[in-house]
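Let us begin with a simple case.
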Amino acid sequence: MRLSFRPRRQGYGDRARHGGKQEKIFAVQDMKYKIFVSGVQKELEDERFAVKEMVVENYLLNEYFKVFLFEDLPAKSKSSEKVYLREVEESDIYVGIFGNEYGKIDKKGLSATEKEYVAASKSDKERLVFLKSGDSKREDKLKALLSRIRNNTKGHCYKRFNAINEFKDELFKSLVDFLKDEGIVSNNAFDESACKNAKLNDVDEKKVRWFLQIAKSQRKYPLSVNTPVREVFIHLNLLDNKKPTNAGILLFGKNPSGFLLQAKIKCIQFPGAQVEKPFSSYQIYDENLFEQIDKAVSFVLDAIKFPVIQQEHTVQVKREHEIPVFAIQEAIANAVTHRDYNSNAAVQVMVFVDRVEICNPGRLTDSLTIEKLKKTHSSYPTNPLIAQPLYLADYIQQAGSGTTEMIKQCRAKGLPEPGFISDRYEFKTILARDIYTESVLDKMGLNERQKKAVLYVKAKGRITNQEYRQMNSISNKTAYYDLTDTVKKSIFVTSGSGKNTVYILKTAEVTKR
C-alpha cells in the first residue's frame, strides 16, 4: 500500500454534534487519535499487545494514533469498570477483538467486553471489530453478542482472522481508511507527497549539480549541469504543489533526517556468525540517500577487505574483496529504494564472519516473488520517484537486471547464490562470504583431495560421493572418510540421504535461512 499523509492537526479531544454529524472540538493538549482496545485480557493477550506494538513501530500510525491498554494502568483504588468505561468515552476509535470466551460476568450477567462495546456504540465511536476463527468453541453468550454486532442495521460488521499477522494487516487497513476519511491520508505515494515543513532552500544545490553531472555522463540525461534546482525537481517530478516531495528531500536534502527520522542505514559488524555484543563496529548514516548508500557500501568493504582468518608470521597483503562489490552495492541500493518509509525501522546492514545481511522494512510487492527475482523480471519499485534518480546516477540497474547480475557475479566468484527472504514486515538479502581460501583450508588440515573438492563445489554448487571418487580415482571407503571429515570440520553440510546425498558448502546454508 503506497500512501502519503498530511501534517498532524494541532490536537483534538471530545466530539460534538453539529447538524447531525460528529465533529472534533480541538484541544491542544491531545494530539493523537486515541484507540481503545477491548477483548478478554487473558485469552487475547497477544492480540491486544499487537495493536500497541504495531502503532508504536509504524511511522504513519505512530504519527496519528495512541493506544489505551488497561494492562498499562497502575493499580488504583477506583473500580476497573469506571476506568475502562471512562476510557471508552474518551477514545476516538474502539477496537474490539473477540475469540471464544465471553469474559467474566457481573451481577447483571454482563462481561466487560460487552459493556465496552455497548458504551462505544452509544457514543457512536468508530468501531473496528475483529473475530478470531474458532466458531465451534465459542461460548453461547459471546455468540449472542456477535449476532447483535453482525446486525448491520443496528450494530456493526466484523472481520475474521486466523493468525496475528492477518489481524494486524486488517487493522492497519482499517486505521488507514479512518485517516483517509478524516482527510489526513491521501492515496498519493509517500515518495510523491510534499515533505512536511520542507522548502526548496532545504535542498542541497551542490548535490543537485553533482547528480546532473553523473546522470549526464552515465545515462545521457538531457538537463545541463547549470539547470536551476526548481526546473530539475519539476523534470524529476519531485515537487508537490511547489513544495519538495519526500523523495526530493531524501535524495537532495541538506539534512534529510531533520524531516524524516526513519530514513537511515544502521551498519553493524559482528565478531562471529551470530548477533552478539560487543560489536566490532557500529555506524548510523542519515545523510542524503546517495551518501547513505556510499557510506554503507564502504562500511561493508572495509569489514571484508582482508581474509577472515589472518595468516600468522606474515605481512598481510590487501586482496580482492571476497564478495563482488556490485552485489553489495545493488543489495544496499535496493534496500533504500524499495523500503517502506511508513515504518520507523531503519535499513540494517550486518556483517558477520560468514555472511552479509541487508534488511529493509517492507516486503516484496504482490507482483514479485522470490523466484521471479532470480530471473529477468519487470520492475515494480515501491518508491518510483526515488528509484528514477538513483537509476540515472547509476546506483541501481535497469528494470529486472540487478538481482540476476548479483547472482551471476556471486556464482562466478565461487560463492553461493544470494539469498532472498520476504515476510510481511521485512525483506532480507543474504550474501555469503568466501571463508574457504587456500590459507584457511591449510589451517583446517585438509588434504589435496579435499581442497580440490572445495574448489569443485565453489564452482558447481555441490558434489556427490561418486563425483568425488571419480575426481580423485579413489575407493568408496576413502571417499566416504574424506567427505565425512569435511562435514565434521564444518566445511560441507549434507543434503538428501543414501545414494541421493549431496555435499554443499556450509556458507551456502546461510543464504537459505
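The second case is a distinct protein. As before, the sequence precedes its C-alpha cells.
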Amino acid sequence: MESVVNGCYAIAYGDADLIIAGGVESMSMVPMGGYTPRPNPKLAEEYPEAYTPMGITAENVAEKYKISREAQDKFAYESHMKAVRATDEGRFKDEIVPLTVQVDGKTITHTVDETIRRDTTLEALAQLKPVFREGGTVTAGNSSPLTDGASAVLIASKQKARSLGLKPMARFVSAAAAGVRPEIMGIGPVYAVPKALKKAKLSLSDIDLFEFNEAFAAQALAVIQELDLPMEKVNVNGGAIALGHALGSSGCRLLVTLVHEMPRRDAQFGVVTMCVGGGQGMAAVFERI
C-alpha cells in the first residue's frame, strides 16, 4: 500500500501525472525464517520484542484483547464462505488478470485464488491444533496462508485522466501510518485509521466499506472490536484468510477489491488498512467517483 500512497503523493506534489503502483510477493520461494534468520545480537538482547514471530504477535493480541478460539475460527470460516460466494457470483472477475503457466508440460490458466477452501467447516477448524504457542488459540486455519501474488493500479492526476479519456474509479483522499508495540503489531490499524480519517475530516460512521488485511483472525477481530466497526462493512467478499496475504501485494490488492465493490453497494467512502510486522499500522481513505 505504501507504493500506492507514495504514487498519490507524487502526483499531488506535481512530481508526476501518471503512475503504475503496486507490489509482488512470492512467499513460497522464501525459506522459513526468511533469508536472514539470525538477528542482530545487540538488538535482540536490548529489544527482544522487535523479533517477536508473527504467530506469537497474534497470540499476544488474542490474549490482550480477549479474542477466543471460537471467535477466531468463526471469523475464518466466514472469510472463506464470503470468498466462495463472491467467486461464484463473479465479483472478482473484473479485478483478476488470468495467469497462464506451464506445469509439468501442461498449460494451466489461473482465474481464481487457490487458497479459498469452500469445503471447510467450523468442526474442521476446531480440530486444528495451535501452532505458535502451547495452549494457544492461533491455528493454521485461522491464520492467512502462504501466498504468491501481485497487484497493480494506475494512478493519474485529474487533468491527465481527462486528457487520456480515462474513467477514474476512485479518488485518493488521505493516508496515515502509526507505530505500535512490535509484539502486538496486529493492532496497528486501530491507530492508523483514526489518523487517516482526521486528515480526511471524516468519521468512522462516514465510511461505507473497510478492507482489512486479515493476517490472523485474532488480529482482524481485535481491530474490529477496538474500532467498534459493524461487521457487515468489513471484508464483505472475504479476506486474506481465504484469499491469501502476499505481503508486498496485499495493500494494493485490498484497494483493487475495495474500488470494485464500492459501486455495487453505492458506497461513497472506503478505507483500506493493514498491520505491518515490526509494529506499524497503515490506512488510506478513498472516495468513489
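The chain has a mean pLDDT of 95. The chain has one domain: 2-288.
Keep these points in mind for the review questions at the end of the chapter.
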